[in-house]
Amino acid sequence: MGSRSSHAAVIPNVDSIRRETGFSQASLVRLHHRFRALDRNKKGYLSRMDLQQIGALAVNPLGDRIIESFFPNGSQRVDFPGFVRVLAHFRPVEDEDTDQDPKKPEPLNSRRNKLHYAFQLYDLDRDGKISRHEMLQVLRLMVGVQVTEEQLENIADRTVQEADEDGDGAVSFLEFTKSLEKMDVEQKMSIRILK
Amino acid sequence: MLRAALSLLALPLAGAAEEPTQKPESQGEPLPGLELFRWQWHEVEAPYLVALWILVASLAKIVFHLSRKVTSLVPESCLLILLGLVLGGIVLAVAKKAEYQLEPGTFFLFLLPPIVLDSGYFMPSRLFFDNLGAILTYAVVGTLWNAFTTGAALWGLQQAGLVAPRVQAGLLDFLLFGSLISAVDPVAVLAVFEEVHVNETLFIIVFGESLLNDAVTVVLYKVCNSFVEMGSANVQATDYLKGVASLFVVSLGGAAVGLVFAFLLALTTRFTKRVRIIEPLLVFLLAYAAYLTAEMASLSAILAVTMCGLGCKKYVEANISHKSRTTVKYTMKTLASCAETVIFMLLGISAVDSSKWAWDSGLVLGTLIFILFFRALGVVLQTWMLNQFRLVPLDKIDQVVMSYGGLRGAVAFALVILLDRTKVPAKDYFVATTIVVVFFTVIVQGLTIKPLVKWLKVKRSEHHKPTLNQELHEHTFDHILAAVEDVVGHHGYHYWRDRWEQFDKKYLSQLLMRRSAYRIRDQIWDVYYRLNIRDAISFVDQGGHVLSSTGLTLPSMPSRNSVAETSVTNLLRESGSGACLDLQVIDTVRSGRDREDAVMHHLLCGGLYKPRRRYKASCSRHFISEDAQERQDKEVFQQNMKRRLESFKSTKHNICFTKSKPRPRKTGRRKKDGVANAEATNGKPRDLGFQDTAAVILTVESEEEEEESDSSETEKEDDEGIIFVARATSEVLQEGKISGISQATTVCPALC
To answer: What are the residue boundaries of the EF-hand domain, all occurrences included (chain A) (predicted)?
Structure first.
């Protein structure tokens, strides 16, 4: 299946992808191989079914939501740049990224963007806030069945209350960021192999 | 002599005082010519002894496990060694001399193979090969380093005069001793690590190292032994080269032998469909034959068995029946557990025989210090080097556990007993030192490794009380990370693994796997997916009435409302994962609000699904049970699938029916029952069945063992996994007679 030295020349628009995502050449090649491996019928793009075939995702409570995050705006296919764009959020933060040229757009793997990615997993209707209902849905996904519905609702209430500062009953992105300021997001949302 | 000893031993055990003579029982006059009762001890002596020892060991285990507190603190191996000491003392006191040593012959031929086979067979092969570089480095380079530095340091110690001159040993003798004492022992590592639960990468590295270093140990031992026998003056340069070459020969040869037998085993199990009953027997016999063949050819037998187990597992699991699989698993575990118990007990007993050893404090202390020190140093150096190449570096905690977890065990002891006293005059001193070292590592290190691990981890964590938000989001992030890692494909693209998998698919699987099993694995996900859709469609078409009217539901869907109210104490007890840091909170709770907070914390803590990384590698010898992870996987999987089904349902108007080409391979099995296993789901497929005419979702249990297959990518095989049954009537399966609903539908992308 291709030669060992399949290099970046095979990837279309490799330079613009590199600039946008900040991946190294080697990582892009690796991701391209993975993209091709996932794309069973060699369509050139990935559909939801291709991602659902990854077995381990089926036993991950957030698996479906992660799959959804690859298909923004209701599209049914994701091509390689789109694939890489999502994964770029998980690039480890390196020191040279911090002293960026302020005119350049924020890199995809900045802390803010990582948090934004996670925020969007909660905020399904994309209104910029995590409502109590959405929090409850996430909790339902993540918690085992021995916790009753009523308890879940209480927890959801309390969680939203804790983070909600302006009292609108929902957690905005700023409030979300603030509640997680102590967490080492850069480390928690980084995959070391994606340099 | 043995008879007398045993009869004396039988005194306390049997409580009968029989003289081993042929005496009739009757008190009356002895009947000449015909004896009513005879005491035939010598005829049953050997097997009786063996059985008796194993029985004693098992009874001891039962007694140990009566007290949970003891077993949670003290690893079983320690208790067994102590028991051995006690028993040895009894035997010594009664018989005035020590019997029942750990004989090297028995050890290498009967006691060690089951343990190694068990480990090799249940070794997680994916993890093993991912970390193969690290494992090989530690096994080869690490063992060589340990052997040479320990030997040289001991010799230096002797030159410095700290070792009494009655220990007559030269540099070569010390090197020989270094080589046998430096090998990490698989039996001890398994015994201790299974209680400690470190992360799986760490475990596989230490354990893999302990298995693979056998080749190095064997070669070093033999080379040094022959050098010692030749006398240091006669050793020539070519002999050194031959030594190095023999390392390759021994290790690669051993591996090759193992692979050959794996191939044979896989091939034979392909044809055992009519003779199911001999399947487990075949597995054991061929694996044992691999061991013996390697021993015979002076190759590394442990490597042979490990490779045999690793290589054959995939095909054998696909070929043999479900019952055979269970049998093999249980038997292997039983044998291994029994062998391990006997080994530790005999270790304890052998230590009592003081005629075999001679004490020298300098040597003993020196050895202890050196092996710990040089192991730590070696680990640090090698890890530093490996981290340059590894994708996931090994951090400091891992290194500490690795160096502390390098336990020596029975292999070292057996090897030292094998030394020839005439050639190695210091043998007795070496024996004593080895005994002390083994006891120290197993008892002291075994006892303290668990608290050490806990202490190291707890020290790293933060001490502030986490808010609900943080807890929840932390878990979320972990799950997200796990999911994205899976999307990216773990450690990225592995060219050689892909090539191997292709080769395997094209040639090996066809040759070695039974045809039905082979076909199933190929089409599994497609079948599952299509059936999923069919069920959804049929469900929808029936207007959703079927389920409610017949009272059938999708099986074992966990329902939130059906759980009883849980109290805080229950939650505390259940969530023993250590993720709850706020036990202090309960103590200092004052106000009602705080109490509510605390309750909620516990609720959340206990209820949250644990992400993959926090799982404990379960390689227990004692418990083969479904653990929390599998239960969690099952729940999550069911809910995910349920949600996906519902999403199909909601977009039913977009379903486009197209005639698909008949799929001969999927329907090739004309038999009545087919079992398709959703391989992609890590072994937790859902129980669904359908019938053509009624299109009713039934809960079916698959009784057929013929066509069952298990997804066996993971070593945590679940016997009661949800088996996905596609039970279709024959009409459905015949091509061309597929009715409207049951056509394989190709769903438009719009549905997704």
So the answer is: 26-61, 110-145, 151-186
pTM of the model: 0.62
Are domains A12-89 and A107-184 of this chain identical in fold? yes
pLDDT digits (tens, 9 = 90+) for B326-344: 899 899 989 988 888 888 8
Integer angstrom CA distances of residue B153 from B178, B254, B370, B371, B432: 9, 31, 7, 10, 18
CB atoms within 10 A of CB B62: 8
Which parts of B365-473 are beta strand (E)? none
Contact map slice: B 682-711 vs A, CB within 8 A:
682, 684
Backbone φ and ψ for B548, nearest 5 degrees, come out as: -75, -35
| B196 alpha-carbon distance from chain centroid | 13
**For B418-472, how does the pLDDT look when each residue is reduced to its tens digit (9 = 90+)?**
888 787 788 888 888 888 888 888 888 888 888 887 887 755 444 456 677 777 7
B310 pLDDT tier (thresholds 50, 70, 90): confident
Query: What pLDDT, in 10s, does the model give residues B342-376?
Result: 888 888 888 887 777 778 888 888 889 998 999 99
Q: Which amino acid is it at B724?
A: F
Residues B604, A143: C-beta atoms closer than 8 Å: yes
How many Cβ contacts (< 8 angstroms) between chains A and B? 188
Collect all residues with Cβ–Cβ distance below 8 Å to B177 and sequence separation of at least 6.
B150, B151, B154, B169, B416, B426, B430, B433
**Mutate which: A60, A71, A181, A193, vs B, most B CBs within 10 A:** A60
Site of tokens 């996904």: A141
Q: Identify which of A145, A153, A159, A132 has the alpha carbon closest to the alpha carbon of residue B607.
A: A145
Residue whose structure tokens are 């799929």 = B663
For chain A, give every domain's residue range.
Answer: 12-89, 107-184
In this structure, are residues B640 and A55 in contact, taking their beta carbons and an 8 Å threshold? no
**Contacts (Cβ under 8 Å, ≥6 apart) of B172:** B224, B227, B228, B232
Contact B600 A154 (CB under 8 A): yes
How many angstroms from the chain centroid is the CA of residue B749? 43
Considering only the top CATH level, what class is A107-184? Answer: mainly alpha
Contact yes or no for B640 and A146 at CB 8 A = no
| Number of neighbours of residue B415 by Cβ within 10 angstroms | 24
Return d(Cα B586, Cα B571) in angstroms, integer.
Answer: 13
When scoring B387, B462, B474, B480 by the number of chain A Cβ atoms within 10 A, the one with the most, hence best to mutate, is B480
Q: Minimal Cα distance from B685: which residue of A?
A: A58
Q: Give the contacts of B385 (CB within 8 A, at least 6 positions apart).
A: B137
What is the helix (H) or strand (E) element at residue A170, kind and residue range?
strand A170-172
d(CA A88, CA B481): 13
Q: Return left, alpha or beta for B626; rule: phi > 0 is left, psi -120 to 50 is alpha, else beta.
A: beta
Which pair of structure tokens corresponds to residue B103? 């004989």
Token pair recorded at residue B257: 């032998």
Q: Hey, is the C-beta of B748 within 8 angstroms of any chain A C-beta?
A: no
Pairwise CB contact (< 8 Å): A183 & B392: no
Cβ-contact B685, B710 below 8 angstroms:
no
Instruction: Report DSSP letters for A63-99, one per residue.
Output: HHHHHHHTSGGG-S-B-HHHHHHHHGGGSPP-HHHHT
pLDDT in tens, A138-170: 888 877 677 778 888 888 888 888 888 888 888
3-class SS at B398?
helix
DSSP 3-state of B26: coil
Inter-chain residue contact B644 with A64, CB threshold 8 Å: yes
Question: Any chain A CB within 8 A of the CB of B560?
Answer: yes
Q: How far apart are CA B623 and CA B618, in angstroms?
A: 9
CATH H superfamily, domain A12-89 = EF-hand (1.10.238.10)
Average pLDDT value for chain B: 69
Rounded distance between C-alpha atoms, residue A186 and residue A169, angstroms: 28
